[in-house]
């Protein structure tokens, strides 16, 4: 039997122009940092932006943005609170600081529930912060929101890129559009990842050098926007605004 | 109805003295590097060691160890091949280099299947390389192998440690033993993570400084054993052999 909520999701999302999933397959490559900063930068450029943290078992964009004590309003659905110029949605409104150990079926259920009840309204961009792994959230997203575009984050490490390659292979097989790849936290001078991205036919969007300042900017949006990370993400924002 | 394979798992694992899950909750903190190196070091110290990669959707210990072209033998179950002095088991024997996009239920099923058919024989230590997130593998492991001890890997980043805290909270709630915490890829001089670990009542086992040499040692076990990573992991191996 089809879940009746799935029909509602399309209705809920119809005023959103572009959905961008900041993803990797790999964990710890900086997806949450890139997703949060990208959402902030697009909002500062005058776009209407939503940010939705889909890493349900270990959400962290609320820590990056330094937002606390906010709650969505309920009115025939839930309205995400507006913070730092963004409409912001996270499972932490419900789970708080406790661990959310969720099986895949629960993750699917939470995703469908939150997509079907959240009233985003009109948005130019909805940025999704994806969890690591290639599991239920990715598979459900492809099924439920097939117009999602994927922005791929990797580090310079071959271990990260091996997983990225598999993840991109899956997206291609599923005919999902990939915006391009960002090399984050770069500490070497090698252009190996750039070359490998070219070989896979992926647009290489930006290099973001490792910047020790980023750690101390966690929780402080203004400071974050002054880091080398933000400089790199500005290039990606431009690419997205011009072409996507 | 109870899955009949679950009864077999206990039988299959009965000659294993200690099961150690190298875990974090967070991705990209170096779990696979620590798990692989720990298994190698314990084996070099004369222990009988197994290494089982449980990151089914993005396995990487086979890349770290540089093992390829090996296959388990089948004889009333499957016998993990012995490489570099370890009995080594990975889903890549079956999935190859393709992505394994698995829903949580498939992950559970793969875990139960592999645990019930793998003939480890007598082992002093079975090292488990855990996936990121707090999902099916963690919950199943706690249910199926309740004598598992958890070794926690974090980086110095507050974003990583926030997830680690949640993960450790879950383990405590489930009354699962935690060996201690390792701070990996450290690039600062702060003792903040050490202090926070103390505060949580966690044994702080080792600091592993960031070492650019580790990247070039991926796939080369001998080179790996000469890195700063291996030096840190030796302390953990000693702690495990003496106390656990």
Find the CATH superfamily of chain A.
Answer: P-loop containing nucleotide triphosphate hydrolases
Order of helix and strand elements from N to C terminus of chain A: HEHEHEEEEHHEHEHEHEHHH
Largest sheet of chain A: 8 strands, mixed
Oligomer: homodimer
Based on CA inertia axes, which overall geometry of chain A fits? globular
Strand content of chain A: 15-25%
> Within the CATH hierarchy, at the fold level, what is the topology of chain A?
Rossmann fold
State the helix count of chain A. 11
* Major interchain interface with per-chain residue totals: A-B, 49 and 49 residues
Give a quick rundown of the structure:
2 copies of one chain form a homodimer. Chain A has 244 residues and is α/β, with parallel strands linked by helices.
Q: Can you characterise this structure?
A:
The structure is a homodimer of 244-residue chains. With 244 residues, the first copy, chain A, is α/β, with parallel strands linked by helices. Helix content of chain A is 43%, strand content 21%. In chain A, the strands form 2 sheets. The first copy, chain A, has an 8-stranded mixed sheet with strand order 5-6-2-7-1-8-9-10, with helices on both faces. In chain A, helix 7 links the parallel strand 8 and strand 9. Chain A is globular. Chains A and B meet through helix 5, helix 6 and helix 7 of A and helix 5, helix 6 and helix 7 of B.
